[in-house]
EAL domain-containing protein
Amino acid sequence: FELQTDLRLALEQQQFLLYYQPVISLATGDLVGFEALIRWNHPTEGFIPPSQFIPVAEETGLIAQIGEWTLREACSQIKAWQEKFEKLFSVRINVNLSVKQFSLPDLMDRIDRILADTGVSGNMLKLEITETAIMDNAESADLIIKQLREREIQLCIDDFGTGYSSLNYLHRFPVKTLKIDRSFISIIEDSNLDRSNKSLIVQAIVTLAHQLGMDVVAEGVETLEQAMYLKQIGCEFAQGYYFEKPLPPTLAEKIIIKGK
Ligand code: G
Ligand code: G
Ligand code: MN
Ligand code: NA
């Protein structure tokens, strides 16, 4: 098994899948979105996690094609769910963009082509990028963010708190949502007693985001205590195993129907 070689074949042999993890409103328990997460079903190795192959894809440049596939597949799924569920399906799908993808000079053309081909409008999409993606592309980010906004595509800062500690870009670039990295969530153990530095950081991030006009998603929420604490400090949204794992489309559909 040679990961790099097999990764090239994976695209043409259609070994990638998207799973969808529900994003939940902490106030109401309602479904407010899904994050699309890539899965590689390798013919002999079984499921290989993205943490293993996304870095290789970044190094080899394959990420451009894989990212293109992901975005197209997510948009096709949006279209299929819109046709199947009509008004019942109205939430955005979050798609992860890698650092390299965000810096592709023709990113906007690629996005426009996919939207046109699938017949999906930008207001059904949210793109997740890291702080690094923005900071590494500080000059081009202004224009890209403006163009995304014209298409009503929202942006979410993923893994917030683990990348650049520079907060400069936060007021410079209009981003809808901050997603707090799960390393900050995993240390929340008790909604009343927890006074560790890390949960103070969570509280500070929520306050910062709100003051900048952003909403907040906590990722990696695994316990009721964490969910209650986050709700108490005003964090709007959450995703994590406590609510739902990333699901194949057929199971995600059951959540769409329930709306919870
Ligand atoms: O699904 P999982 O929890 O294993 O994801 C691990 C990491 O892989 C996460 O950081 C996630 O952002 C990233 N990831 C998942 N799907 C995609 C994708 O389609 N494109 C990119 N660039 N990263 C992804
Ligand atoms: O984009 P990002 O790296 O944040 O992707 C989310 C990753 O976290 C995915 O790989 C997903 O499978 C994983 N994940 C989702 N919910 C949980 C959770 O509650 N706990 C942990 N440990 N991982 C989670
Ligand atoms: Mn993400
Ligand atoms: Na993350």
